[in-house]
Amino acid sequence: MSTVKSALTIAGTDPTGGAGIQADLKVFQEREVFGMSVVTSVVAQNTEGVRAVQHLDVPFIEQQLDAVLEDITPDAIKTGMIATVEMMELIARKLKNSSIPYVIDPVMVAKSGDSLMDDTSRQVIRETLIPLATVVTPNVPEAEILTGIEIATQADQKLAAKYIVEELGAKAAIVKGGHLTGEETEDILYTDGHYTSYYSERFQTKHTHGTGCTFSAAIAAELAKGKSIEEATSIGKEFIRDAIQFSLEIGKGNGPTNAWGLRLQGLPNEGENVHGAPIR
Ligand SMILES: Nc1ncnc2c1ncn2[C@@H]1O[C@H](COP(=O)(O)OP(=O)(O)O)[C@@H](O)[C@H]1O
Ligand SMILES: Cc1ncc(COP(=O)(O)OP(=O)(O)O)c(N)n1
User: CDD domains given for it (predicted)?
Assistant: First the structure.
C-alpha cells in the first residue's frame, strides 16, 4: 500500500509554466505529494500578461472532477482561478460534504493587472466557496474585495483575516503581505481565535510571477501530509521565500518563482542572492 499522499488542484492554466495549474503541479512534486489537476479555464498568458481566456464548459469541468474523485480521493484540494459563478456553484456542490482539507487561493487579478475573475464572481465566492475552506490565502487587493476592509497596515491585515473566518465562515485565513511595503513581508494567519505571523525578508526582484499559486500549493501539499494549518503555513512561507530568492529570469516580463529553490539551499551557492539567474 502506497504511503504517498496526493493533492488535487482545480484552476486555470499558464502555458509558460509559472502560475496556475502548471505551477501547482511543480510545487506538489517538489513537496513529494502526487499532483492531480482539473482545468477550469485555459489562459493564453506569459510573463508579460494575459492575452486571452477560454472558460471550459461547466459540465466538462464536472466530468473532469468526477473522473478524478470517483477513482482517487485526494488528501488535499486547492482551488485557484475559478472565474465564474457557475464554476463556483459546481465546486461547492462537489465539496459540500467533504472532509478533505481545502485551500482557496481566491485568484482575482494577475500581477500584470489582468482580471481573472468577473465582478459578480468576486462577491459570490464569499457565499459559495469560502465557507467550505480550510484555509483562504488572499493577497491584499483580494482580501479588500472579500471583506470591504481597506488594508494598509498589519492591524488591517488582522481585521481582514478575522473577518474571513468569523464572518465568512472559513476555518482559517492568511492575509499575505506581498503587496505592502517594508524590509520584511509579513503574512498573518487567523484561526481558532489566534493570530500567527510568518515573516521573510522582502527580495527586490521583479521575478515574482506565480507567488500566490506557489505559496498556496505548498500549504495544500503539507495539509495533504497531515500537517496542522500552522505547520503547513510555516513550511509554505519557507518554500515561497526560497522560490522567490532563487526565482528565474525566464521570459521578457516578470519571471517565475523557482519551485526547487529550497533544494538549492543545499548546493554550493547557498545563501547567495541569485534571483534573476538565467536557466541556461
Ligand atoms: N518580494 C518579495 N519578497 C519576499 N516574499 C514575497 C515577495 N513578494 C511576495 N512575497 C510573498 O509571496 C507570497 C505571495 O504573496 P503576494 O505577492 O502577496 O500574493 P499574490 O501572488 O497572490 O499577489 C507571500 O508569502 C508573500 O509574503
Ligand atoms: C491561471 C492563473 N492562475 C493564477 C494566476 C495568478 O497567479 P499568482 O500566483 O497570483 O501570481 P501572478 O501570476 O499574478 O504574478 C495566473 N496568473 N494565472
Answer: HMPP_kinase (cd01169)
> What pLDDT is stored for residue 248 in this prediction?
92
Query: What CATH number is given for 6-264 in this structure?
Result: 3.40.1190.20
Is the minimum distance from the CB of 218 to ligand 1 under 6 angstroms? no
Q: Rounded distance, CA 269 to CA 230, Å?
A: 30
Q: How large is the ipTM?
A: 0.98
Q: Where are the domains of the chain?
A: 6-264
pTM of the model: 0.95
Cα 2 to ligand 2 centre (Å)? 32
List beta partners, residue 49: 46
Which residue's alpha carbon is at the smallest distance from atom 15 of ligand 2? 209
Residues 6+ positions from 7 with CB-CB distance below 8 Å: 28, 33, 34, 35, 36, 74, 75, 76, 77, 78, 217, 220, 221, 224
Contact 146, 166 (CB under 8 A): no
Q: Distance from the CA of 57 to the center of ligand 1, in angstroms?
A: 32
pLDDT tens profile 119-144: 899 999 999 999 999 999 999 999 99
Residue 106's closest CA among 216, 222, 236, 223? Answer: 216
